[in-house]
TrEMBL record:
Pfam families assigned: FAD_binding_6
Ranges for domain Flavoprotein pyridine nucleotide cytochrome reductase-like FAD-binding: 3-54
Species assigned in the record: Serratia marcescens
Gene3D superfamilies noted in UniProt: Nucleotide-binding domain of ferredoxin-NADP reductase (FNR) module, Translation factors
Protein name, as recorded: Ferredoxin--NADP(+) reductase
Single Gene Ontology BP annotation: cellular response to oxidative stress
Length: 97
C-alpha cells in the first residue's frame, strides 16, 4: 500500500506494508518515524479524523501469491518488517495449499 499526504502543495507518497489481511475493510500499519523524513513525522502527528491518501493494492515480494508451496514456512523479521507476515497470516486460507 502507499500512503500520501499533501505537504506544502506537494503530494508526498511512500510505500508501507499493512498488517491486516488485504480484504479487511480497515487498514492497519506499523510505522517508524524517521525524524528527518518527509512523510513519517507528519503521519505520526495525525489526529483522529485526519485525511490520508491511500493506494490499497498490495504489490511486491511480500504478498501471498509470492509465497512458494512448502511443508514448513519460516517467517523471520525485525521491526516494521513483521507487517507483511502478519497480513499473510491473517489471510491464512491461502496458506493451506
Amino acid at each position: 500500500a502507499k500512503l500520501a499526504l499533501e505537504i506544502d502543495g506537494e503530494r508526498v507518497q511512500r510505500a508501507y506494508s499493512y498488517v491486516n489481511a488485504p480484504d479487511d475493510a480497515n487498514l492497519e500499519f506499523y510505522l517508524v518515524t524517521v525524524p528527518e523524513g518527509k512523510l513519517s513525522p507528519r503521519l505520526s502527528q495525525l489526529q483522529p479524523g485526519s485525511e490520508v491518501m491511500v493506494t490499497k493494492e498490495a504489490a511486491g515480494f511480500f504478498v501471498l501469491d509470492e509465497v512458494p508451496d512448502c511443508d514448513t514456512l519460516w517467517m523471520l523479521a525485525t521491526g516494521t518488517a513483521i507487517g507483511p507476515y502478519l497480513s499473510i497470516l491473517q489471510q491464512g486460507a491461502g496458506l493451506e495449499r
